[in-house]
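Students often ask why inverse folding is considered easier than folding. One informal answer: many sequences map to the same fold, so there is more than one right answer. In these notes we will look at a single instance of the problem. The structure comes first.
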């Protein structure tokens, strides 16, 4: 598992387009902040993080998802790994670990950039605001990893890069959440609060309020566990296509 992890890290760090893409996203992020900086106030540090970070599961997570999952289908890497005797459960867990590491590191960088920009503009974050922004970042880290794990079921079940990418971006752009919201409204049943988005949102609210009830954490962990089990199950059942 460690060799597979190291190999994937080496592969991604030697992809030139990763640096070009992340650099472009960072420049765009900085540009948007400066374009609207005329209306800044202390609340902007938190409000803008809430808005801008919500796009990062798609912009950052989408890149890492396609690089870690969809590229394997295009290059037939899954066939090679399984052919060399790597267990399918090990592949699923390694990909999850890689997605988590790259997501945490990229969000840490963007959070530092966020604080840095506002400090330069004269709106350095205070203690409570720093906590709020970190809670928002953590929420979106959970969403990015969770969306990747759910979409990986499509990766292993269909072995079609396009289907996998569509599944991820439907989750990241809240299309699936909107569908659940519509169903909840029609059925008059609260479904959304018990999805990945709802659980991650509840965790974020708890971090902001200083409350640490176990229920949202257990619910989110339970959903991730179900997604892992489903990924391994469909991967084992699906014959690899040459």
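Output (designed amino acids):
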């Amino acid at each position: 598992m460690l060799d597979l992890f190291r190999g994937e890290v080496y592969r991604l760090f030697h992809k030139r387009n990763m640096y070009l893409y992340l650099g472009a996203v960072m420049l765009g992020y900085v540009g948007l902040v400066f374009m609207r900086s005329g209306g800044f106030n202390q609340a902007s540090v938190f409000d803008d993080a809430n808005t801008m970070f919500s796009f990062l599961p798609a912009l950052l997570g989408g890149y890492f998802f396609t690089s870690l999952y969809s590229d394997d289908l295009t290059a037939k890497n899954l066939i090679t790994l399984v052919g060399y005797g790597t267990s399918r459960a090990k592949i699923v867990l390694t990909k999850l670990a890689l997605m988590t590491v790259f997501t945490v590191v990229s969000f840490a960088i963007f959070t530092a950039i966020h604080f840095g920009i506002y400090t330069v503009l004269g709106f350095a974050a205070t203690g409570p605001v720093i906590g709020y922004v970190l809670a928002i970042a953590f929420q979106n880290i959970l969403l990015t990893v969770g969306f990747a794990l759910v979409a990986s079921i499509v990766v292993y079940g269909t072995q079609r890069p396009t289907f996998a990418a569509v599944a991820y971006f439907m989750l990241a752009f809240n299309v699936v959440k909107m569908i659940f919201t519509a169903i909840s409204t029609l059925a008059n049943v609260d479904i959304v609060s018990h999805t990945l988005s709802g659980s991650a949102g509840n965790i974020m609210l708890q971090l902001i309020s200083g409350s640490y009830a176990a229920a949202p954490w257990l619910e989110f962990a339970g959903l991730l566990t179900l997604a892992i089990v489903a990924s391994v199950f469909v991967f084992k059942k699906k014959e690899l296509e040459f």
